[in-house]
Amino acid sequence: MTKKLKLEELGRIDVETFKKTVKIPLVVILDSVRSMHNVGAVFRTADAFLVEKIVLCGITPQPPHREIHKAALGATESVDWIFEENINTAIDNLKKDNFNIIGIEQTSTSQLISDFEIDPEKKYALILGNEVDGISDEALNNIDTFLEIPQLGTKHSLNVSVCGGIVIWEFAKNLGIKK
User: Fold this and answer.
1) pLDDT tens readout for residues 120-165
2) 169 partner at 20 to 30 Å CA-CA among 23, 44, 137, 176?
3) pTM for the structure as a whole
4) What is the separation of C-alpha 25 from the centre of its chain, rounded to a whole number of angstroms?
């Protein structure tokens, strides 16, 4: 008979153990994401998949904040994060550390995420843009590759935290996440 597991049966690690756990070579950059709920949701997803860190840029709100915490459920304590006001400074710093910069955006050069080969030997930084305007125009020429999620309905985009969940999972499963 199937039963739902209780929290104590899930075997989750505590924050201290999380901090010591080897992370996947993935950084998430939030480029002027304005909704605190979206920021919190990305933190929670980053915790779930052992993302190395989150870089908050531009007008992206920063923890601690009650509205971020509502969606993050404590993940702002486990996931490392920094604030870098300028998106291009954030990108340049990651490029110096040999990260491949991936913009999640519909552009004239974007390819479907399903057609992109994720190399487990490389490090990646995923940029998720503003809910209305997407990735900052000034960052576009500083991004190595653009990926988009195939969509078949009438809407032209997904909520940024939903998009982040899909893309982070796609990279996590290809970068060697193990349960």
Assistant:
1) 999 999 999 999 999 999 999 999 999 999 999 999 999 999 999 9
2) 137
3) 0.96
4) 12
